UniProtKB/TrEMBL annotation:
Belongs to the short-chain dehydrogenases/reductases (SDR) family. Keywords: NAD, Oxidoreductase. It comes from Paenibacillus odorifer. The keyword DNA-binding does not apply. SMART domains: PKS_KR (SM00822). Residues 8-191 form the Ketoreductase domain. Pfam families: adh_short_C2 (PF13561). InterPro entries: KR_dom, NAD(P)-bd_dom_sf, SDR_fam. This is Oxidoreductase. SUPFAM superfamilies: NAD(P)-binding Rossmann-fold domains. Gene3D superfamilies: NAD(P)-binding Rossmann-like Domain.
Amino acid sequence: MGNRFDGKVVLITGAGSGLGQASALQVAKEGAKLSLVDLNSAALEETKGKVLEVTPNAEVLLITANVADEKAVENYVKDTVERYGRIDGFFNNAGIEGKQNLLTEDYDFEDFQKVISINLSGVFYGMKYVLKVMREQGYGSVVNTASVGGIRGVGNQTGYAASKHGVVGLTRNSGIEYGQYGISIKAIAPGAILTPMIEVYLKQIDPVNWKEAADELVQPNPMKRFGKPEEVAYLVSFLLSDQANFINATVIPIDGGQSNKY
């Protein structure tokens, strides 16, 4: 297992923190060459530093890019291929939480567009350019980050829920299209995972007592706790590997069982 990604290239967006950073650390431990993308260049440097702490010989390419900009996405794919010659795995992960705790009628359209541009258009752009590379290769694996909020209804999360439902649709549709080319495409649907994004979300709900809001948030979860980024990273690593090639056009929850209660 330690050599599962030896010689393989893994491209990760949203790699500066949270699930992207944790997944970069995990696949690097298993031998992957990394191409890491984020809008925050300082966060990328932090991720690279952590990768090199645990895997001193890791090859790491850092690319600062806005995933909502199609040309920037085309360029990060091009830069990755120019550096490594191919893309074996793609964790299409970058996203934002958007405005929370609002009724749909109170949700500003500009805020809605911003969430859609990053969470949905950004995922689409990534798939558009990476899948072309993988089709020409005749193989590859894509993991998109959806959400529990993309497989069931959630209140007061208009932009986020809409964007993540869209990611689920893109995943299923493209998996059907590209399976014939030796490419598997799947999505993960995390529940409440203890990342910087969840803290932003909680502070929107209750800026003062957000830690109490955190306690309340995990109560519907059968396991009564937040998930850890590294727990998601283990799943991502498996899904990107050759061992998961026959898992395609589907969505896999990682939420402690929460989605099964509704």
